[in-house]
């Protein structure tokens, strides 16, 4: 019986068994290349703490759009800071520049208001503010959210003061009661006495800043009493509690510079103190009164035709042994720069001008400024033909002749005597 054996032949070409691994390799390679080509840049950001930050959860956002996620959290070599490794989406290289800023956004509730309340649900996230400069992959994050964004229009103004008071970062700046800017920060000067305050004035209010712009502190409530009565001044409830600054640019007939890039402005204590620093030239005069000057206090205004031209510096009581009588010398100072068309150039001409005005009838007398406070002020006015009463006992200061207190003031004084 014949035995049949199978015929064995070799297959020409590759075996079908290798097709599947080959396809797997090709697909895997294509996925790797595709993943690498679509992968965005990786950068590091350092903060002092990692509060509110979680791996694979904390996002990096720009204008509320996710552009990255925290991939790793680790310590710096000296353990003083936290290093975050962030994976950004594709084409994010344009965001990562030398001046780019990062900060953590989390819920904040304070007297200034609320911010970041959306993070109560979604969790904290990292905000990015792109800036110019060369490409960079390592950054130092801000510990606080910046008061002013880089794309906000306006000007940065520096103020100097001797007393910061209740001002702080974020304190409001007002112009005629409107919110015009904020305090960005402050630092101690090199003299260890002055404090420099960095502020930002928003557009269009920044266009109002000139070389003669005045800034003053409006923190709290300013209460004063003078010849005009009681004055209570406050800019807003917010400035009462948090502190604030106000500014104004007076309209003048003089030419004022508009180039303020290198100027440092003085922050005055209040609005009244602006006038004290605005007029540098002061001329002192002395006056004598025989009647009571009750209600005349130091700093009381000296007015000419209803316009303040000076203030009272000192009040004394003198006794003349020869005539056994009392008189009251009142020292005042006049600020000639308050008068636009002034002819006083020096001490000599000022005395000559005074003599001419006295010859024409310039006299001083006390007037009641407020019935509520019974405060007095010094009124200067022209009284042609009025008697010239000069004591002439003080040669240190030129003397201004005086007139008796006005009838209304005398009536008020009589009423006080009767009621007392």
Question: Count of DSSP E strands?
Answer: 25
Average predicted local confidence, pLDDT: 81
Number of domains: 3
Unreliable sequence segments = none
Major sheet attributes: 7 strands, mixed
Strand order of the largest sheet: 5-8-2-3-4-1-9
Query: What would you call the shape?
Result: rod-shaped
Helix content bin = 10-25%
Counting helices, strands and paired strands, the structural category is alpha+beta
What is the straight-line distance between the termini? 160 Å
Count of separate DSSP helical elements: 6
Strand content: 35-45%
Question: What's the structural blueprint in terms of helices and strands?
Answer:
Elements (H helix, E strand, L loop, with lengths): L18 H20 L3 E6 L11 E4 L2 E11 L6 E7 L12 E5 L2 E3 L2 E3 L3 H4 L2 E5 L8 E3 L13 E8 L10 E4 L2 E11 L6 E8 L11 E4 L4 E5 L2 E5 L3 H6 L2 E4 L15 E5 L3 H7 L4 E7 L11 E4 L2 E9 L2 E3 L4 E10 L12 H13 L2 E7 L7 E7 L24 H13 L1
Parallel strand pairs: 1-9, 2-8, 10-18, 11-17, 14-18, 20-25
Antiparallel strand pairs: 1-4, 2-3, 3-4, 5-8, 6-7, 10-13, 11-12, 12-13, 14-17, 15-16, 19-23, 20-21, 21-23, 22-23, 24-25
């Amino acid at each position: 019986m014949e035995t049949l054996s199978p015929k064995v032949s070799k297959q020409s070409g590759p075996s079908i068994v290798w097709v599947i691994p080959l396809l797997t390799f090709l697909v895997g390679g294509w996925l790797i290349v595709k993943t690498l080509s679509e992968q965005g840049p990786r950068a590091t950001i350092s903060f002092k703490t990692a509060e509110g930050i979680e791996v694979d959860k904390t996002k990096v956002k720009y204008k509320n759009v996710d552009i990255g996620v925290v991939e790793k959290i680790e310590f710096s070599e000296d353990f003083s800071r936290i290093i975050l490794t962030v994976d950004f989406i594709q084409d994010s290289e344009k965001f990562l520049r030398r001046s780019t800023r990062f900060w953590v956004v989390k819920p904040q509730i304070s007297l200034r208001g609320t911010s970041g309340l959306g993070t109560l649900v979604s969790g904290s996230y990292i905000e990015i503010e792109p800036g110019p400069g060369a490409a960079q992959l390592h950054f130092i994050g801000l510990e606080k959210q910046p008061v002013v964004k880089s794309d906000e229009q306006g000007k940065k103004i520096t103020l100097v003061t001797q007393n910061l008071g209740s001002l702080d970062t974020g304190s409001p700046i007002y112009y005629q009661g409107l919110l015009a800017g904020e305090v960005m920060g402050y630092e101690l000067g090199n003299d260890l006495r002055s404090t420099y305050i960095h502020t930002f004035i928003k557009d269009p209010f920044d266009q109002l800043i000139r070389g003669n712009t005045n800034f003053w502190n409006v923190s709290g409530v300013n209460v004063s009493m003078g010849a005009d009565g009681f004055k209570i001044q406050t800019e807003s409830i917010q400035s009462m509690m948090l502190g604030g600054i106000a500014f104004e640019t007076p309209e003048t007939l003089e030419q004022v510079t508009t180039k303020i890039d290198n100027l440092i402005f003085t922050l005055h204590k209040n609005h009244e103190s602006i006038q004290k620093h605005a007029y540098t030239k002061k001329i002192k005069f002395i006056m004598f009164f025989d009647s009571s000057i009750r209600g005349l206090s130091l700093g009381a205004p000296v007015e000419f035709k209803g316009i303040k031209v000076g203030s009272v510096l000192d009040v004394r009581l003198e006794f003349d042994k020869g005539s056994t009588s009392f008189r009251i010398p009142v020292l005042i100072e006049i600020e000639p720069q308050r008068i636009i068309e002034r002819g006083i150039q020096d001490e000599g001409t000022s005395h000559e001008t005074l003599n001419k005005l006295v010859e024409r009838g310039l006299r001083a007398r006390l007037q009641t400024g407020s019935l509520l406070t019974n405060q007095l002020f010094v009124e200067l006015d022209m009284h042609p033909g009025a008697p010239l009463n000069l004591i002439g006992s003080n040669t240190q200061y030129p003397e201004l002749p005086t007139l008796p207190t006005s009838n209304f003031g005398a009536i008020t004084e009589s009423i006080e005597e009767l009621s007392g």
